[in-house]
Design goal:
mainly alpha
C-alpha cells in the first residue's frame, strides 16, 4: 500500500514539474548573451532590468514573463495571507499559529524562483510549474 502511495505521489510530482521546454525556439547566441538578464527576472523587482535592458531578446523576455508571473502570484499570495492573518488575530491572538503554518506556503515561491534561475543559467526556456503556462508579455 505504501509503495503504491509513493508511486502515485511521484507520478503526480512528475506531472506538475514536467513543463513545456521551448529552448529550441530561441537563438543560441541570444541565449548566451542574455543568461544574466534572464536570471535577474526571478529576483523580485529586478524583473524590470531584463524588460528594459534586454527588451529585444526573446530569451530574456521569456524569463521576464516567467518572473512577472512569479512576482504577481507571490504578491497575491501575501495580500491574501495578511488579510487572513488579521482576521485570525481579530478572532483570537491564539490562532496566529495557523497563519504561521499558512505562511510556509510562501516557500513555494522561493522554490519556483530557484527553478527559474537554474533554467535560465542553463540556457533553457522551460516554463515554471503551475504558473508558467500563462503569458503576460508577448
Amino acid at each position: 500500500m505504501e509503495n503504491q502511495n509513493q508511486q502515485s505521489f511521484e507520478e503526480k510530482l512528475s506531472a506538475v514539474t514536467n513543463t513545456a521546454d521551448t529552448t529550441n525556439q530561441f537563438d543560441p547566441q541570444d541565449i548566451e548573451q542574455n543568461k544574466v538578464m534572464a536570471i535577474l527576472a526571478y529576483l523580485g523587482i529586478l524583473v524590470l532590468v531584463p524588460l528594459i535592458g534586454a527588451s529585444q531578446s526573446k530569451f530574456a523576455r521569456f524569463h521576464a514573463n516567467q518572473g512577472l508571473l512569479l512576482c504577481a502570484a507571490s504578491i497575491a499570495f501575501y495580500v491574501v495571507y495578511y488579510i487572513f492573518l488579521h482576521i485570525l488575530i481579530a478572532i483570537s491572538w491564539k490562532l496566529v499559529f495557523i497563519a504561521t503554518i499558512f505562511s510556509l506556503l510562501g516557500l513555494v515561491f522561493l522554490v519556483l524562483a530557484i527553478i527559474g534561475i537554474i533554467n535560465a543559467a542553463n540556457g533553457k526556456a522551460k516554463e515554471l510549474p503551475v504558473i508558467g503556462k500563462y503569458r503576460i508579455l508577448k
